[in-house]
Amino acid sequence: MNAQPIIEVAEPRQLPSTSDSASASRAATPALEICGLSKTFTLGGGLFKRGRTLGAVSDVSLRIPRGQVMGLVGESGCGKSTLAKMLLGLTTPSDGDVLVDGRPVRDADQKALARHIQPIFQDPYSSLNPRKRIAQIVGLPLRVHGIGTPREQRARIAETLDVVGLPRRAAEQFPGQLSGGQRQRVAIARALIMRPDIVICDEPTSALDVSVQAQILNLLLDLKAEFGLTYLFISHDLAVVEHLVDRVAVMYLGRIVEEGTREQIFGSPRHPYTRALLDSALTPEPGMGVPDIGLGDATPDPSDPPAGCAFHPRCPKAQAACRQQRPRLEDIRSDNARVACHLA
Amino acid sequence: MTTSSVSPTASSASTPGTGLGEIPLQPPAWSRVTRRLFGHRGLAIGLIVVGLAILIAIFAPLLAPHDPYHQDIANRMVPPVWHDKGSWEHVLGTDKLGRDTLSRLLFGTRISLTIGLVVALISGVIGTTLGVLAGYFGGRVDAVISYVITTRLAMPVVLVALALASLTGGSLTTVIVLLGLLLWDRFAVVSRSVTQQMRDAEYVYAARTLGCSLPYILLREVLPNIAGSLIVVMTLEMAHAILLEATLSFLGMGVQPPLPSWGLMVAEGKAYMFFQPWVIAIPGIALFVLVLAINLLGDGLRDLNAPGGRN
Description:
The structure holds two protein chains of two kinds.
Chain A lengths: L2 H26 L3 E12 L8 E13 L4 E5 L6 H9 L6 E6 L2 E2 L5 H7 E4 L13 H12 L4 H14 L16 H13 L5 E5 L7 H18 L2 E6 L2 H7 L2 E6 L2 E7 H6 L4 H9 L39 H5 L5 E4 L3 E3 L5
Helix pairs in contact in A: 4-5, 4-6, 5-6, 6-7
Chain B lengths: L1 H17 L3 H42 L37 H37 L1 H15 L3 H12 L3 H11 L2 H15 L2 H8 L4 H37 L11 H8 L8 H28 L1 H4 L1
Helix pairs in contact in B: 2-3, 2-11, 3-4, 3-6, 3-7, 3-9, 5-6, 7-9, 8-9, 9-10, 9-11, 10-11
């Protein structure tokens, strides 16, 4: 009878050793892995007629290692935000899987997912409920997940407001009383209060003034260092991306056309679309005018994508093969970069 | 002539002095102030009149000088006090059965307000539920609910209410249930369109990402933001229901005699319209004032409830 409690005490002692090996493999698995993710929408269908299909995201695969920032760039309507919604569990993927810490989220429930992935949205004027006080907004995750007593929640809210650089009196204010930059800090506080591993930033600075953008970006970098966060940073502002990210994925018409480190993408882009995208970035010098990127104005229809390489109607170097065969996203260099182009 | 020639030069001399910056700012600022003043004035008038009506409804037994049901055949069709033959015994006169008009008017407030409030609540719950669901889910749900709304809009309220009331027999309860089941269309249309705008608000996405339940999102994130529009619709529907009750009672299919409904009072007085016009004018004016006050109240509440007005 006396021996039993000893065994019971001894048993948990073994657990740390197994979890040690688990954490070792945990460091090796990417924080977020996207495997062949696709989303197809149906357009224009009514009660009795079928609509056309639109592939918003097609066969996207990405690995984001722990503690890194992956930039996702591309023009409007290329599927960046749909991808973000699928990662957040807001939209069900038509095909493919998302793995968080090596575990598929397909069967996980939304609350379990919410503890790992949190969003920061584009428009801080739309992302905060105008009828709620800041403390209610920031504390919502704690209340929904039933974390802590009301007193502990208040302490956590105050602490989180400190972390994102908001004054404590902001807790009792309404979103309408804050500036755009302050509102985005509130949105960041709400995303971080549950200490997620991964933050999906969907154009977090595009609605802000340029002077405020830098503050928010630096805050995001500080928070990443402090909490060991992993970011998927969606943007069409290449200057912002270059400032922040470790790796960049370029998306065109629902597919990833090039992926590599920041130096590879910004220094030696391989895909003609990436080059055009880099050329299209506006420089601060006055009098330069809008750059001519030589793409023409044949903007593609996502519900009727061109055959072959989806980019060929706009590509200055398109050849016969580009019109017939879609290039696969292949490892093109030894250093872990990928590009989908026949000519690269 | 000299004064008129002096004043323009004085004003033109003073305007540059007051500063060029003020000139473009002044008209919008001034109109904003007047608009706010008028808005608040309407709210104040509406609040006072509706508040008075509620007090009258509650304290009608204390305020009424006579029993509203007591018939005094000897004193039929007594004119109001300002008339030559009027007396302070019956301030607003008596009807064809000798019942005191003032007392019946005071008790009638109870019926009108009850009908307005209960009908607006019933139809508000039905219409808002349908509208929010249609707006939030969209797609098939929206198609089905929109079909139901269209079907309802195709029905003429008065005719349908008359037909149904004639089947069941008119009574206060019948009127409330019928109007409650018929007047939800505006709630549904308004809440549907406002919810549609809200469905893609990023704070709704944020709540969904957190795993908030659907009732939480609809009741706590969406509903507070559409409450302003719903309050305005609610006051409109209250006024609408009060008028429809009067219509149905006038047509004999609403509140039944001897209950002191304003619509019934108008109906009972219509035979005397040409020679004793006050019999019909007094309840008519009461209806008009109450409905106007409720609408003023709704407009004022909307102004206050707008997110911009909160700060």
